[in-house]
């Protein structure tokens, strides 16, 4: 009989099992950590990863192993070793270990969920064939076609870019891995700096990871990197670039992931999930638009790809570049403290000026409904653009025609029967749609309560704004870009093309149009009603608004010739608000300083550390009871001493699709204390969940969100 060895395997055990660490299995021979295997779990066979034996297995883990052994005195055996796949590196496993512990999820769940789904399905022979084919493709493609090389124009960096690069090179040469905060105005040419930093790292034989916040920004970046590196840069051979995001087919995702893992690809461009790409020679991580909330995963392990990138940089001895025109206050504060190196690029490339900001005081505008929507000076400014053959962009962060229908006779409003929200009136198909659960009905001819036929639309969304613009400017060609107008595949591209080719005078839309797109002929950007964020209960709302307005302003005057007359218009009822004053001066530093001061006084991040415990149930009482029980349980924990637990409150939209959502804030001035408390609290939460069985008080879901972005 063969001697069996004990191995630890990270498997994706169901969350409610409460198992957080790897499980023990037996194997006929020792297996390298990071190897992909198939093991039995319950009655199924699942994929798992051989996990390194940690320096010190935590108490929980020992307990879990003991529990497992009690259930199952004989270890079950590894069924198959996927030997064709080289093991994942110890540093990759360390990154997953950290992410799982920090975001309070099981190691197996995190490890398996960030691998391409195909990898779990294929057996060793199938994967072997895929890898052989991939090697052939990469060898056959050789140096990338000459046309790409020919299209590569040599760009000379500006003096400011040169200075930024010089600073960046100092950081990259440092023996200690560094984090660089590249604070560059919109249009200052940050991408060129990324390209040159990447060039240097690639020349040293290492790999580069570039993260972007949204999938629809990857093609333009891929084109830019492809043009520079695809045909071989000035100094080096052609480089292989792959992308990683959720828009790829499963087969593509597997190919791209394998190319990175096998070291065939030199550059990986991707969205937040790419922070977990396996890169054996990683030398540089770029996080573009590092302030963007899209970097935070909103389900499962709610990780921040930006924060994990910083951690990963330290693990891999790689430089991390965080780029933004409006950095997150967390990153800004670290730069202020000297923990990050700040590199500034305040000017636009080609000497173009930033747009002049004009604040329209809506208190002074005559109180006619039309006038309140679009003030006369703004309409005049838009008309001037049309006459000059220039384009304008008008944005409003609310889609649909009107946010609610209302009957003046009886007070009826178009509430969603399943959510604590109004159904939005969409005029295009005369529907009432709930933006939370999707519940849709035709608009009633008369008030469903009293039969009054005169029901009115209140407020305004992008559809109505589009209509109002067409009325105010009959000569204008108006196009709208929002989630509704771009639902069909290719619709977004078609509309963007129309803007680029000059077929549109005024572009209307939600924040979708404010991000990233490089519109050359836009000289006016207007925010018609941004005020609501000033008084939001979410403490991050002003930070997001400022970033959005700065980013939107950055859409104007990207062409240096037009920059001098480009303008950003803001219609507001609060013209003297500090946020608008800072916007007027394009003064991020002043805005950040005032916000940080407020946060410090209020004890909010980055001066405090937060976690949110969310619970969902059929009744608000059940959700509240679970949170209350959780709070009571925490009170007995020694680790809860320096942690404050607040009362359960309804989520900002309390009911969605007939599910009541409650949340409870947990706060500490010490990140370590908060982490320690969460680690001891979680097993109690699992136990609580399984105790509460009675139908009425059952909760459907619960989750811990560490460093939540919206509260
Ligand atoms: Zn009525
Ligand atoms: Zn609904």
Summarize the structure.
The protein is α/β, with parallel strands linked by helices and 711 residues long. The protein has 22 helices and 28 strands.
The share of residues in extended strands comes to 15-25%
Bound small molecules, by name, code or SMILES, are: zinc ion
Form type? globular
Task: Name the CATH class of the largest domain.
Answer: Alpha Beta
- The class by helix and strand makeup works out as alpha/beta
**Sheet with most strands:** 7 strands, parallel
**The CATH H-level homologous superfamily of the largest domain:** P-loop containing nucleotide triphosphate hydrolases
Q: Any idea of the CATH topology of the largest domain? A: Rossmann fold
Nearest-integer average pLDDT: 88
pLDDT below 50 for ≥5 consecutive residues: which ranges? 143-152
Count the beta strands.
28
Write the layout of secondary structure elements.
Layout: E1 5-11, E2 23-27, E3 36-41, E4 44-50, H1 59-71, E5 80-81, H2 90-102, H3 107-113, H4 117-121, H5 124-141, H6 146-150, H7 159-173, E6 179-184, H8 190-203, E7 207-211, H9 218-229, E8 241-244, H10 250-261, E9 267-270, E10 282-288, H11 305-316, E11 319-324, H12 329-336, E12 341-345, E13 356-361, H13 369-373, H14 376-388, E14 391-395, E15 404-407, E16 424-426, E17 431-433, E18 440-442, E19 455-458, H15 462-472, E20 478-481, H16 491-500, E21 506-509, E22 522-527, H17 541-553, H18 560-563, E23 567-572, H19 578-584, H20 588-602, E24 609-617, H21 620-635, E25 644-645, E26 649-656, E27 659-668, H22 671-691, E28 699-706
Helix pairs in contact: 2-3, 2-11, 7-8, 19-20, 21-22
Bound molecules: zinc ion (ZN) (2 copies).
One zinc ion (ZN) binds next to loops.
């Amino acid at each position: 009989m063969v001697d069996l060895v004990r191995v630890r395997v990270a498997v994706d055990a169901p969350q409610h099992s409460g198992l957080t660490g790897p499980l023990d299995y037996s194997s006929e021979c020792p297996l390298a950590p990071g190897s992909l295997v198939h093991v039995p779990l319950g009655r199924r066979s699942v994929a798992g990863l051989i996990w390194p034996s940690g320096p010190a297995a935590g108490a929980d883990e020992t307990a879990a192993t003991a529990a497992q052994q009690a259930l199952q005195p004989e270890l079950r055996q590894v069924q198959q070793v996927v030997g064709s796949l080289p093991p994942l590196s110890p540093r990759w496993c360390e990154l997953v270990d950290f992410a799982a512990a920090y975001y309070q999820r099981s190691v197996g769940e995190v490890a398996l969920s960030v691998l391409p789904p195909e990898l779990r399905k294929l057996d060793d022979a199938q994967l072997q064939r895929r890898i052989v084919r991939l090697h052939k493709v990469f060898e056959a493609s050789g140096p990338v076609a000459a046309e790409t090389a020919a299209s590569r124009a040599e760009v000379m960096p500006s003096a400011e870019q040169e200075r930024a690069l010089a600073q960046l090179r100092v950081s990259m040469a440092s023996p200690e891995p560094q984090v660089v905060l590249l604070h560059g105005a919109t249009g200052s040419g940050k991408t060129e700096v990324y390209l040159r930093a990447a060039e240097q790292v690639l020349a040293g034989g290492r790999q580069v990871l570039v993260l972007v916040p949204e999938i629809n920004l990857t093609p333009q970046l891929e084109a830019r990197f492809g043009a520079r590196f695809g045909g071989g840069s000035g100094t080096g051979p052609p480089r292989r670039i792959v992308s990683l995001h959720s828009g790829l087919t499963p087969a593509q995702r597997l190919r791209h992931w394998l190319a990175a893992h096998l070291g065939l690809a030199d550059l990986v461009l991707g969205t937040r999930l790419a922070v977990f790409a396996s890169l054996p020679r990683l030398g540089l991580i770029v996080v573009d638009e590092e302030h963007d909330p899209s970097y935070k995963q909103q389900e499962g392990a709610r990780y921040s790809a930006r924060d994990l990138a910083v951690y990963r940089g330290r693990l891999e001895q790689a430089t991390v570049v965080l780029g933004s025109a409006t950095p997150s206050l967390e990153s800004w504060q670290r730069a202020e403290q000297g923990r990050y190196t700040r590199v500034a690029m305040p000017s636009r490339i080609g000497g173009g000026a930033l747009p002049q900001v004009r604040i329209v005081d809506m208190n002074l505008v005559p109180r006619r409904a039309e006038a309140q929507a679009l003030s006369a000076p703004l309409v005049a400014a838009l008309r001037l653009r049309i006459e000059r053959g220039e384009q304008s962009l008008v944005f409003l962060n609310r889609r649909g025609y009107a946010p609610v229908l209302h009957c003046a006779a009886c007070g009826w409003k178009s509430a969603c029967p399943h959510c604590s929200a109004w159904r939005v009136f969409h005029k295009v198909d005369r529907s009432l749609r709930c933006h939370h659960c999707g519940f849709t009905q035709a608009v009633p001819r008369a008030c469903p309560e009293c039969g009054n036929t005169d029901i009115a639309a209140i407020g305004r969304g992008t559809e109505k704004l589009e209509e109002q613009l067409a009325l105010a400017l009959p000569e204008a060609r108006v196009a709208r870009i929002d989630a509704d107008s771009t639902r069909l595949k290719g619709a977004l591209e078609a509309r963007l093309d129309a803007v680029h080719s000059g077929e549109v005078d005024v572009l209307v839309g939600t924040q979708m149009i404010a991000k990233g797109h490089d519109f050359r002929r836009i000289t006016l950007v207007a925010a018609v009603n941004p005020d609501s964020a000033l008084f939001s209960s979410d403490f991050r709302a002003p930070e997001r608004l400022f970033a959005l307005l700065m980013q939107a302003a950055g859409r104007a005057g990207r062409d240096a010739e037009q920059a001098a007359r480009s303008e950003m218009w803001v219609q507001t009822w609060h013209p003297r608000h500090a946020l608008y004053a800072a916007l007027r001066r394009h003064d991020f530093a002043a805005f950040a300083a005032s916000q940080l001061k407020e946060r410090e006084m209020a004890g909010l991040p980055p001066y405090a550390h937060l976690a949110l415990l969310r619970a969902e149930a059929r009744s608000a009482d059940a959700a509240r009871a679970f949170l209350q029980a959780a709070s009571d349980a925490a009170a007995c924990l020694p680790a809860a001493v320096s942690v404050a637990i607040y009362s359960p409150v309804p989520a900002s939209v309390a009911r969605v699709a007939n599910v009541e959502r409650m949340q409870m804030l947990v706060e500490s001035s010490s990140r370590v204390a908060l982490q320690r408390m969460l680690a001891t609290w979680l097993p109690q939460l699992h136990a609580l969940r399984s105790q509460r069985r009675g139908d009425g008080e059952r909760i459907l879901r619960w989750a811990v969100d560490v460093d939540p972005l919206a509260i």
